[in-house]
Design brief:
With about 700 residues, this protein is an alpha+beta fold.
Length: about 700
């Protein structure tokens, strides 16, 4: 038996990827507080590769134009006494090192623009094309932005020809390189500033595939590069006494093509009421907040006729732009595989199944310069060098953990959890776009409780079709459970896979409030207690299974009930707020104790409680299904899953009937705050005699007649 068990474990598919949390999805990041926003970006980024100058030149920078010779350029520049001092052996404008200049940083580094002009001017004599960038120093002005932002690079390289229509030329849309200057060498303020500038450009401009930066501390200069797969920083060098590196950097970028500078040539950004739009509004762009990742943006768009005008009376469509992992299939291909499996195993039921998923009208990989756009092409096919180190995030202190609560209009968020970011290979991504037929509402925007449960039931039907052909979704959340007219739909299948798939990834992201507890913990939690022989191999590989999808649906229903109230401008009770925080505490591996007990539905509005009773019953049903399936490892889910689908359908149908005409309203952040006395009692339950006396006095005074 032991040999059979060992063989079975070896034959199991590989371990599912453990989740990683994103600080840029947290409420603090969206608060508008600059300090919190910067900290979130840095904590998400973690350590990143510090590479040699030669690797940075080869992998990150555009290739030099054919006629540009750095050695000859340097020789020519050093013959000009107005450019190069042969006495100090440095740039003439920097004969005095910055930290001894006696001037403000703005004035100290302003001459760098003259160095740029001299280098580019000399290179233009041999280049076949004019320079496409110019140097601008604007340390007293914040960049004009599409979003609220107070970032202020000390200088930047701007496109000579603006990339946007009806947009100021010095707006971030046209920034190719952001600079940060410091006269001293202590601290990492410049590093923090440039990372924030890189982040701001990447998340504010939908056309950005990559962007560049420069930091200078006294005479030490570093080059920076970021794309959706990796952030790189070069080793430092003395820009005054080692001019060849700065000459290479300026010439490489100043004469590069737009796509080599990081812009997507397939998109033009426009602004102004007199212009025609293809995309009419941003539906979602939260995934673009992190420097590294999918950078997903979802737009509403309208089709255009060949003459460039929007088609009259045409229904709006949805455009999804994202960077997927290079070893994952595109979402439309995954859907095709699912529907093919359904046709093979279910025949005509495939047509019924299709109505519960979003409809792909067009899909493809973005093409740039005749090649598929990817981070691999941005880095010119290179991987991380063997000789490298990892640059620690420039964070001065670790903030005290806070409870993260959902604000109005947002799905739940979660705080940062440190994880290893030291990787041997760049996790490359491919740029793709999909067009969907249906412009839907996410479930957290619905305003009647019966519609919520009807949507969840349709989502369950979609999952039942997936599960019937041995697929799992693996990323159910409030953002991809959708409503379109009178039907619920399931979206975002980029993480879906067959249950026997052997693929895995270094990092997974997800919405933790909706993630199954076992997936969060990466282990089976309902195995029976049993004696095991000393020395026996008890190792098991945890795998996602269909029960975990079902639990995610349950968490969505629970979140809807405990987050909302049934009257506009109404405030949830203190007990409801506390229950919500216990159920969704906003930290890793903290929900299972609540999942193991029962719901306190009496804290909810009375109109919610009958439907909530069905949700509480589903909690019992889920735990029974887990317990039954985990009598063996790997779990035997087939029978418990079939029973669970039947029970979910019955209970959701009952919840719909109990929820007729019940409204849903999201309390504002202020309405979700506890009164000070209740908060103190929750944080410090020790009775305070003085407060008890004051409470009695208030009660006595309120009983007196009013005149």
């Amino acid at each position: 038996m032991e040999k059979e068990r060992t063989s079975q474990l070896k034959d199991m598919p590989r371990l599912d990827t453990a989740p990683r949390l994103k600080q840029t999805s947290a409420e603090e990041y969206r608060s508008g507080e600059l300090t919190l926003g910067r900290l979130a970006v840095l904590r998400d980024l973690g350590e990143f590769p510090s590479v040699s100058l030669e690797y940075f030149k080869f992998a990150a920078l555009p290739p030099l134009r054919q006629r540009i010779d750095v050695t000859k350029l340097q020789e020519s520049l050093q013959r000009d006494a107005t450019v190069w001092s042969n006495v100090s052996k440095r740039w003439a404008e920097f004969e005095t090192v910055p930290k001894k200049s006696g001037k403000h940083e703005d004035e100290t580094f302003k001459p760098l623009s003259k160095v740029f002009d001299a280098i580019v001017g000399e290179a233009s004599k041999t280049s076949s094309t004019p320079a496409k960038l110019r140097f601008a120093s604007r340390p007293t002005e914040a960049q004009k932005s599409w979003r609220t932002n107070s970032t202020r690079p000390d200088a930047y390289l701007l496109l000579v020809d603006t990339k946007s229509v009806n947009v100021p030329e010095d707006k971030e849309d046209n920034v190719a390189v952001s600079f940060e200057f410091k006269k001293g060498t202590q601290g990492k303020t410049g590093c923090k500033d440039v990372i924030w500038s890189l982040h701001h450009i990447m998340h504010s401009d939908p056309r950005r595939r990559a962007t560049f930066g420069v930091t200078i501390e006294n005479t030490e200069m570093r080059f920076w590069f970021t794309c959706r797969a990796v952030t790189l920083v070069s080793k430092s060098f003395n820009f005054c006494s080692e001019p060849e590196h700065l000459i290479y950097f300026f010439c490489s970028l100043a004469f590069a093509e737009d796509h080599e500078l990081g812009w997507d040539p397939t998109i033009q950004r426009v602004r102004g009421e007199d212009l025609v739009y293809q995309t009419t509004r941003v539906i979602s762009d939260f995934s673009a907040d992190a420097l590294i990742g999918s950078g997903t943006r979802v737009f509403e768009e309208r089709p255009k006729s060949p003459n460039g005008t929007i088609v009259k009376n045409a229904e709006p469509l949805v455009l999804k732009d994202s960077w997927r992992d290079c070893d994952r299939d595109r979402e439309d291909i995954i859907l095709e595989q699912i529907f093919a499996d359904l046709w093979e195993k279910k025949g005509s039921e495939q047509e019924e199944a299709m109505k519960y998923f979003v409809t792909v009208l067009a899909a493809g990989n973005v093409m740039v310069d005749g090649k598929i756009d990817s981070t691999d092409s941005l880095l010119r096919g290179s991987d991380l060098p063997a000789e490298r180190s990892f640059y620690p995030p420039p964070v001065d202190e670790v903030p005290k953990a806070k409870l993260i609560r959902s604000g109005e209009g947002y799905t739940p968020t979660f705080p940062f959890v440190p994880c290893s970011t030291e990787y041997s290979k760049v996790p490359h991504r491919i740029h793709s776009r999909l067009v969907f037929k249906e412009v839907c509402q996410p479930i957290y925007e619905l305003r009647t409780l019966d519609t919520v449960f009807a949507t969840l039931e349709d989502t369950r039907k979609a999952l039942q079709f997936l599960h019937s052909v041995d697929w799992v979704h693996r990323d159910i959340s409030g953002g991809n459970v959708l409503r379109w007219g009178k039907i619920g739909k399931l979206a975002d299948l980029e993480y879906a896979k067959r249950m026997d798939s052997n693929t895995t990834h270094e990092v997974r992201t997800g919405t933790l409030e909706f993630m199954a507890c076992e997936v969060e913990a990466q282990k089976y939690l309902f195995r029976p207690i049993m004696r095991r022989r000393v020395g026996a191999d008890d190792s098991t590989s945890f795998r996602f299974n269909p029960l975990h999808d079902m639990e995610s649906v349950w968490w969505i229903a629970t979140w809807i009930l405990y987050h909302h109230v049934d009257q506009e401008a109404s405030r949830p009770s203190t007990k409801q707020i506390n229950s919500f925080r216990e159920l969704f505490p906003g930290c890793l591996n903290s929900r299972f104790p609540m999942f193991s007990t029962s719901l306190n539905i009496r804290v909810l509005p009375a109109s919610f409680q009958n439907a909530a009773q069905e949700v509480e019953n589903l909690l019992v049903d889920l735990k029974l299904a887990y317990t039954e399936s985990e009598t063996t490892i790997p779990p035997a889910c087939t029978k418990p899953l079939a029973t669970l689908h039947t029970i979910f359908a019955k209970r959701f149908t009952s919840a719909i009937e109990h929820s007729r005409a019940v409204g849903l309203f999201s309390p504002t952040a202020a309405q979700r705050q506890e009164d000070p006395l209740a908060k103190r009692q929750r944080e410090d339950p020790t009775p305070n005699p003085r407060e008890k006396k004051q409470a009695k006095a208030r009660s006595f005074c309120s009983s007196l007649p009013q005149y």
